[in-house]
């Protein structure tokens, strides 16, 4: 489904209109009689860009991380200028790379005999047992919470009817120079810095008072 909303013309910025539009969109459930995805094209200038495309997808089709990874996997940047926006990959973009990849896979050592083979078998068995153990712990914890323990009230859970409250989209900007400076000081990676900021913000949000 594709939507192109119309806002009042000749405004300097449409930030408030976009925020209100997104808030109303999040309150509306996707109809099961229609495709469980929507593309909203907002051809209006905001502080974040000249235009905005909003993709509303049902969680059944994928979560946020997997959908973003899928979009990045099917997009690329021009090699002559990496600063340009990403574009979709054509069906023949990686045609010449496939034989080399297949040859590399075929050349892998798949020997399961000798000391190396025993180590692989033991590592596989240990991994399976570890997964089964943690799965059992998760099942016990989930069942106990469902049966006896009640979750505490915090913004993620909220009171009954909290899903019908208006949503507000908040954003912030970070300069790449600041992220790299923090990375160098803590001795991590840029991804560590970004994830630290995200989880710290999530923690502060969970500590907020309920509306």
UniProtKB/TrEMBL annotation:
One of its GO terms (biological process) is triglyceride biosynthetic process. Residues 18-102 form the O-acyltransferase WSD1-like N-terminal domain. Pathway: Lipid metabolism; Glycerolipid metabolism; triacylglycerol biosynthesis. It catalyses: an acyl-CoA + a 1,2-diacyl-sn-glycerol = a triacyl-sn-glycerol + CoA. Keywords: Acyltransferase, Membrane, Transferase, Transmembrane, Transmembrane helix. The chain crosses the membrane at residues 117-137. GO terms for molecular function: diacylglycerol O-acyltransferase activity. It holds the Pfam family WS_DGAT_cat. It comes from the Eukaryota. InterPro entries: O-acyltransferase_WSD1-like (IPR045034), O-acyltransferase_WSD1_N (IPR004255). Its EC number is 2.3.1.20. One of its GO terms (cellular component) is plasma membrane. PANTHER family: O-ACYLTRANSFERASE (WSD1-LIKE) FAMILY PROTEIN, O-ACYLTRANSFERASE WSD1-LIKE ISOFORM X1. This is diacylglycerol O-acyltransferase.
């Amino acid at each position: 489904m594709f939507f192109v909303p119309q806002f009042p013309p000749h405004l300097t910025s449409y930030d408030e209109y976009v925020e209100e539009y997104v808030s109303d969109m999040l309150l509306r459930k996707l109809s099961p009689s229609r495709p469980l995805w929507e593309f909203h094209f907002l051809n209006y200038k905001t502080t974040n860009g000249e235009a905005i495309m909003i993709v509303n997808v049902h969680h059944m089709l994928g979560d946020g991380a997997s959908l973003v990874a899928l979009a990045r996997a099917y997009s690329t940047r021009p090699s002559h200028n990496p600063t340009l926006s990403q574009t979709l990959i054509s069906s023949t973009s990686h045609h010449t790379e496939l034989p080399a990849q297949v040859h590399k896979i075929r050349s892998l050592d798949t020997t399961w005999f000798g000391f190396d083979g025993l180590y692989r078998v033991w590592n596989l068995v240990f991994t399976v047992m570890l997964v089964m153990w943690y799965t059992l712990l998760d099942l016990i914890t989930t069942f106990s919470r469902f049966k006896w323990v009640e979750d505490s009230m915090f913004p993620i859970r909220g009171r009954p009817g909290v899903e019908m409250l208006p949503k507000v989209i908040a954003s912030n900007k970070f300069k790449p120079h600041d992220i790299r400076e923090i990375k160098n000081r803590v001795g991590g990676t840029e991804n560590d810095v970004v994830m630290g900021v995200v989880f710290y913000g999530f923690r502060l949000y969970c500590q907020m008072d309920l509306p």
